[in-house]
Specification:
mainly beta; Immunoglobulin-like; 5-stranded mixed beta sheet; 3-stranded mixed beta sheet; 10 strands; binds copper (II) ion
Length: 110
């Protein structure tokens, strides 16, 4: 029987920390809010908005209970209020509500 030395080192360090790393935007109200996305029913309205780099998007809880999760943003479940998110980098940023399947929206920053 041959001796086999197997070094199985699974590097599974890719975890929550990486997923939660800020993607270039922070929650702040120091930029022009150029779009509003409502969380209502079982969906975001609209499903997509486009803003310019440096602008902000206001997420408004307009009906039902929802949380809001995106890169660098995590708001617990609630049924009213709002959150302004400023986008400082170009790209497409996806947001989800984990309480409702397929409840997603995206912010396209140009
Ligand atoms: Cu929801």
């Amino acid at each position: 029987m041959p001796t086999t030395t197997t070094m199985k080192r699974t590097v599974a360090a890719i975890g929550v920390a990486a997923l939660l790393a800020p993607a270039g935007y922070i929650a702040a109200a120091d930029a022009s809010t150029t779009a509003t996305i409502k969380l209502k029913g079982v969906q975001f309205t609209p499903r997509s908005v486009t803003v310019k780099k440096g602008n902000a998007v206001k997420f408004v809880w307009a009906g039902g209970t929802h949380n809001l999760v995106g890169p660098g943003v995590r708001v617990g479940a609630k049924s009213s209020g709002s959150r302004v998110v400023t986008f400082r980098k170009k790209g497409t940023f996806k947001f989800v509500c984990q309480l409702h399947a397929n409840m997603t929206t995206k912010v396209i920053v140009k």
